[in-house]
Amino acid sequence: MDELYMARCIELARKGVGATAPNPMVGCVIVHEDKIIGEGYHREFGQAHAEVNAIASVKDPKLLEDSTLYVNLEPCSHFGKTPPCSWLIIEKNIRDVVIGCMDPNPIIAGNGLRQLEEFGCKVQTGILEKECLDLNKRFFTYHTKKRPWILLKWARTKDGFIDRERTGNEKSGVNWITGKHARQLVHKWRSEVQTILVGTRTALLDDPELTVRDWTGKNPLRLVIDRKGVLPEPLKVFNGATDTLVFTSSDAYTSAGVKNRKNLEYVLLPDEKDYIPAILRHLYELEIQSIMVEGGFSLLTSFIESGLWDEARVFTGDVSFGSGVPCPEIPGEPAEILSEGPDRLEIFRNF
Questions:
Q1: For residue 290, is it left (φ>0), alpha (ψ between -120 and 50) or beta?
Q2: Which of 92, 96, 187, 255 is the most exposed place for a label (fewest CB within 10 A)?
Q3: Which one of 3, 11, 51, 129 is the catalytic residue?
Q4: Are 89 and 75 contacting, i.e. CB atoms less than 8 angstroms apart?
Q5: Could you tell me which residues come within 8 angstroms of residue 198 by beta carbon, excluding any fewer than 6 positions away?
Q6: What residues pair up with 99 in beta bridges, in sequence order?
Q7: CA-CA distance, 296 to 69, in Å (whole number)?
């Protein structure tokens, strides 16, 4: 039964996707005599944690002393925006606690477990551990690899092209490869990540807005690489619709008119060929735990060749270009192959 209740914790935790970062997604279930008497999850960063919500949902608090608390991640043990959950468990005299996986955050990292055991709790760990780790892979990547979790995304034609050949003189716009259903799914993914990155060519030729429109959710922070300062002001990434960072090696953005654009900030990159680590370091310092790269061939290939990626989602649309820009080459075989309307989706993993 432990696996069943932990699976429910994971199910609850997923309801917080896209809203809890930089905190993890956490769900909690309280069981008394094989019956769930309380449930809760972390709804949004800064709000009550899963254990608090689950305990508050129990109609008869006297049952807590004889109940088992299930939670997919080690309870926090420090004062942040909310008090420690480990203290609340101890205060309510809950003696049986089942934890899916431990917290890698150095502030916690075993302290929650230690506090519970010192109080006299019977603590069991490692229940559905693999599933619990996968649930918060972005949180774990950030704390263990000191960088955001990196998702690469692109679409290719049946004959292997990511775009038509364009000189830059044509009117900007997307050469669509996938259908409506796949594009809606991409907007869902955008709502689940903290940032989205494109390079100069994609920003210039496709003129994407990089916001969530075909799904309900929060817009990611837009990231644009413009090392030479060539992107013109009318582009949608400069429309002020949401916060945007432009990574540049140019001093072209020193004028007050450019610097004072709404929701726009510029970050200087080192004038080096390999600039991706500098971008990732900056995002780590901002406590950004996830990034989706929607760039073109060069940007995607740079991430792949450097080994700096965790997952790649590759659509194959039901169209052919005959010629054009070749799609990036991803190592290995896909972990999953799915159908999304008329399109195929292959998922590759690098962890």
A1: beta
A2: 255
A3: 51
A4: yes
A5: 206, 208, 210, 223, 224, 225, 237, 293, 294, 295, 296, 299
A6: 71, 125
A7: 47
Structural contact between residues 338 and 178, judged by C-beta atoms closer than 8 angstroms: no
Which of 147, 223, 155, 217 lies closest to 189, judged by CA? 217
Token digits of residue 278: 């500098």
- Each residue's pLDDT expressed in tens, for the chain with a length of 351 residues: 899 999 999 999 999 998 998 999 999 999 999 999 999 999 999 889 999 999 999 999 999 999 999 999 999 876 666 678 989 999 899 999 999 999 988 777 777 888 888 888 999 999 999 999 999 999 999 999 999 999 999 999 999 999 888 865 555 567 889 988 999 999 999 999 999 999 999 999 899 999 999 888 899 999 999 988 888 888 999 999 999 999 998 776 644 445 556 789 999 888 777 889 999 999 999 999 999 999 899 999 999 999 999 999 999 999 999 888 999 999 899 999 998 888 999 999 998
Q: Give the SS3 label for residue 140.
A: helix
Instruction: Say how far residue 254 (Cα) sits from the centre of its chain.
Output: 32
Closest C-alpha to 174, from 198, 196, 199, 203:
203
**CB atoms closer than 10 angstroms to residue 173:** 11
Note whether 13 and 41 are within 8 A (CB).
yes
Nearest alpha carbon to residue 20 among 244, 194, 211, 147: 194
- Catalytic status, residue 51: yes
Name residues whose C-beta falls within 8 Å of residue 285's C-beta, 6 or more positions apart in sequence.
Answer: none
Q: How far is CA 149 from CA 143, 196, 272, 346, in A?
A: 10, 12, 23, 18
